[in-house]
């Protein structure tokens, strides 16, 4: 059996060993931090003209790509026409409604830029207390205009 002093010495030895490992005294085998991608790049200084031009050009290309993803006026009009054509009766007051089946039909006809908006998740997000399981065409169209 170990004496109390031997137990304290052993405890102190283990404590020191683990403390040095955690503090970085010894290299541990865990190098997962090396796989984390870099996410911050400093802005180029005023005298780094090439880096500033590269940053401006990459920003312009990014904005052009994003603007091509947006729906233009003609595509929005087409979407409204399709939604109106496929509305599901009965109307609630003056508000046109659409059920999920017709919602999917419109999604097929609306074009590739609109595909991202015709998901079950978005339909469910806009579904409120309609007894027929429909969403408001106007609410959906406003959602597309805000997000797209």
UniProtKB/TrEMBL annotation:
Q: What Gene Ontology terms for biological process does this UniProt record contain?
A: B cell homeostasis; cortical cytoskeleton organization; microtubule cytoskeleton organization; positive regulation of B cell differentiation; regulation of dephosphorylation; T cell homeostasis
Taxonomic superkingdom:
Eukaryota
Alphabetically ordered keywords of this record: Cytoplasm
UniProt KW tRNA-binding keyword: no
Q: Which residues form the signal peptide?
A: none
The record's principal subcellular location, in a coarse class, is cytoplasm
Give the CC-aspect GO terms. Answer: centrosome; cytoplasm; spindle
Q: Where in the cell is it found?
A: Cytoplasm
What name does UniProt use for this protein? P2R3C phosphatase
């Amino acid at each position: 059996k170990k004496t109390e002093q031997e137990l304290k010495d052993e405890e102190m030895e283990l404590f020191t060993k683990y403390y040095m490992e955690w503090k970085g005294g010894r290299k541990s085998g865990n190098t997962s931090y090396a796989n984390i991608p870099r996410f911050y790049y400093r802005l180029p200084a005023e005298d780094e003209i090439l880096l500033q031009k590269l940053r401006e050009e990459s920003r312009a290309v990014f904005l052009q790509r994003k603007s091509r993803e947006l729906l233009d006026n003609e595509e929005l009009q087409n979407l409204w026409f399709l939604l109106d054509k496929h509305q599901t009766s009965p109307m609630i007051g003056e508000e046109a409604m659409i059920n999920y089946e017709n919602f999917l039909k419109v999604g097929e006809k609306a074009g590739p830029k609109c595909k991202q908006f015709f998901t079950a998740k978005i339909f469910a997000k806009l579904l409120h207390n309609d007894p027929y399981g429909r969403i408001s065409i106007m609410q959906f169209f406003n959602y597309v205009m805000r997000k797209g």
